[in-house]
Please model this.
Amino acid sequence: MNGAIILFIVMFILIFMGVPVAFSIAASSSVFLVITAMKPLLIVPQRMLTGLDSFPYLAIPLFILVGNLMDTGGISRRLVNWANLLAGGLPGGLGVVTVLACTIFAALTGSAPATVAAIGSIMIAPMVENGYAKKTAVGLCAAAGALGPIIPPSITMIVFGVTMSVSIPAMFLGGIVPGLLIALLLIVANMIHAFRHPEILKHRRTEKMKWGNFFRMTLTTVPTLLLPVIILGGIYTGRFTPTESAAVGVAYALLLGFCYRELQVKDLPRLLIRSAETSAMVCFIISVANILSWIMASTQATTAIVNGLMTFVNNKFTFLLVMNLFLILVGALLDQGAAVIIICPMLFSLGTSLGIEPLHLALVMCVNLVLGNVTPPFGYNLFAAASISGLKFNDVVKGVVPYLLIEIAVLFFLAYCEPVCTWLPRMAGY
Model:
């Protein structure tokens, strides 16, 4: 147990020194094995390979590729234009469009940083031109981008389902209502912000929407909107697995890109390389996290932590409070994939032993960790937003805080209102 404590201390020291999370985990685990002589260092590559030896993990690089194809193929721009026709005339219309576009794009890719990059690069500049403070526009985009891993398909849910043996299709279904609830509250918050800032209302679109234009735009956008229907419909009808659905998504995104004539063959090598780089980073984190998870199990540190928590957490209501506060901190420091593999198994075991429904617990934990994308100091969405906007990181944080607080409030509502998460999967027979 003492050795495990030292391991975590070393890991967090390296993280705060600026060492990438994956390398921090790998280095601290290797140091632990050397100091304790528990196992030879050969265990490191062995556990890394074992950690990735799962068929559902194949969905991760495929969904990442889907997001890149969507962005390059002009699909994200078409979504924005369609959403603008639909909601651009509302108070704070461009903010509403941003949230709607992020919501739809989330249902296409399942990646939070990809959603921020794709939608933010289109929407931030027009929002600033129409009266929004730049930090507010960037903060809203970063917060709405967190919907990616909540609304299916979700890479985080895939990793969680594999690790904890929870039905991935059930988790996909369960993420729909929480994701839409967060989107709705972000829209409401944006509209309230618009009413409090007359310079935004001054730029409100006043001309009436021409239904002919809307129907023409809808016809060109329908093929895009069909992608989540094809992916999720195929999963729930048993036509293909979540991994196979990702492959179908890649094929469909390629078809749309070529049909829209905005994706060219010469673009494919660049897209494949970009997707491979992102996938390698995600998979490397998962693989090294498996080393740490194995060490925790072998040293019985997990059991000790659970037993320690049981001394002052004796009911599920207290547990949900402590767990959520703890995971908010974890999500701010660790990658989601690493947190799922290292931290979540012991919390999941403790929560289910206290009578919490496994699917409900899984969804609450996933939503919590997803919020780590917008939680400083290591939120991926914050860095993505800063990169595409040119804004300082601290200013991005200031802009996202009001929206992050809304998302945290929704998280606790989900924790104590189980049906919000589970009724849709139960209706589908899960």
In short: The longest helix spans residues 268-298.
